[in-house]
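Hello again, I could really use a second opinion on something today. I've been staring at a protein lately and its backbone has me curious. You're getting the sequence in one-letter code plus the fold written as tokens. I'd be grateful if you could look everything over and explain what you see. No rush at all, and the record is pasted right below:
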Amino acid sequence: MAKRLYVGGLPYSTNEDAIRDAFSKAGTVENVTIITDKMTGRSKGFGFVEMSNDDEAQNAIAMWNGQEFDGRKLTVNEARPMEERAPRERRFSR
């Protein structure tokens, strides 16, 4: 079963292909997602990499956590499940 990893500290200029190439050294990469700002489309500096199994995910963590990638130090660990968030309050009046 695929294992989802959180990857923080990504350079803002990086793209999904560069991350896929780097993490493929640890195993099969199923999916890469870079989180971007909705308004500007600019990277927020973190994303998720889905490895094909637990062993490859652990290899990727061991290989990349704390290592430099394009001048920035990465934080790589198992992704936590997304938590429920309260609905946002509307901030405009009619």
About this structure: The chain has a mean pLDDT of 92. The beta strands are 3-8, 29-36, 43-51, 68-69, 72-73, 75-78.
